[in-house]
Amino acid sequence: MRRKDSVIAWPSLAWEAAGVWRSVRPAFTEAGPERDTAVQSLKAAGAALLAWAVAGWWWNAPMALLAPWTALFLVQSTVYRSLLSALQQFVVVMAGTLLAAGAGVLTHNTMTAMALALPLTVLLGNYARFGDQGLYAATAALFVLVYGSYTGFDILHRLLETLLGAAIGICVNALVRPPVHTRRVRRLGDRLPKDCAELLHTVADGIQEPYDEEQARGWYDRAVRLTGQVTDLRVARRRSDESYRLNPAHRLRSSVPAPPAADWDVDWDRITEDIRATMRTLTETAALPDCVPDPLAALLRAAGDVAELPEGADDERPRALGVAAAAHRQLTAVLADGRFETMSALGGLTADTQRLLDDLTSVVSQRSGKPRRTAGRVP
């Protein structure tokens, strides 16, 4: 039985090792999140070693462990986050140390002091303002009580060594290749228009075929994922903005391309919502007049062309918008036909695609430097 288990384990270990290598290799071969993680990890280790060299080797401090321990955890993903975490950690360590020292002086018994101090420090650590650093209130209390060191001299040294580690961790993070997180914003900004265009082209090709409910639901699911990408973009944008706050050396990183402006997110948030609304209407439409699929397909295909055209294609975008607008006029003419005016789905498609065209036109106008269009939307 053991031999069989080992035979099964070896392929699993080989698969795991291959997966680890696939993650590690990009850190050496290309700029990306893997390399950023490796750099931050090495910086954290370096900060801890430097803090120990100062506190343990040079200063020979009695509580030298606290300096590298603090420095290790304060090399955060951004300089701003390092500063905020340092403030939070110092407050919770001081509170945990003082509560433990008070309980120790009051009871003169380690077990009883723990029973008094730990519930208070754990509750304190759950205070939302302390974030992830709240855990260190109880940890600091345990250090104090387990080692039985809670004289005034010991408490002062704990706080000084915590401050030393915090200062080293912040300086290392701020001065050694300070992190600037714009890559994910740029990647999502490049990917979102392409994914919108791909979906619009797919629907344009499929709308002329007989109605398939499963296919229509697949289109809608893809549209929902597009709106999720906008949410991911906003999260990445907040992280990118934070990485520039209090960063003393980000201007030295001139090789880092700037991400799209924040207005770009708002525009594509509207466009993805328009696409989602259009796909939802299509899922609810089992049949359309025979004269609708052709202009609708032309409209969606041209809208996809507008979405995916790269920067600099200023002549092609208006042409594609003109094709889409002409196709939309055909849809409007069908809707005005007395034979189809009662079809709510046709009215919904006309309104949804009008909003899509308005928002695409707004994006094109912004890129060309013209005033943004705010009127003419179908309610």
General description of the model:
With 379 residues, this protein is mostly helical. It contains 13 helices and no strands. It has helices at 2-29, 33-58, 66-73, 79-107, 110-125, 135-147, 152-175, 183-206, 213-244, 262-283, 293-308, 316-336, 344-367. It is elongated. Mean pLDDT is 84; it is low at 373-379.
Number of helix segments? 13
Helix content: over 70%
Q: How would you spell out the order of helices and strands?
A: HHHHHHHHHHHHH
Strand-residue proportion = under 5%
CA distance, first residue to last residue: 70 Å
Average predicted local confidence, pLDDT: 84
The biggest sheet, with number of strands, parallel, antiparallel or mixed sense and barrel status, is:
none
Class of secondary structure makeup: mainly alpha
What gross morphology would you assign? elongated
Detail the poorly predicted runs: 373-379
Supply Rg.
30 Å
Total E-strand runs: 0
Keywords:
379 residues, disordered C terminus, 13 helices, mainly alpha
Short description:
The protein has 379 residues and is mostly helical.
Compile the SSE list and pairings.
Layout: H1 2-29, H2 33-58, H3 66-73, H4 79-107, H5 110-125, H6 135-147, H7 152-175, H8 183-206, H9 213-244, H10 262-283, H11 293-308, H12 316-336, H13 344-367
Helix pairs in contact: 1-2, 2-3, 2-7, 3-7, 4-5, 4-6, 4-7, 5-6, 8-9, 8-10, 8-11, 9-10, 10-13, 11-12, 11-13, 12-13
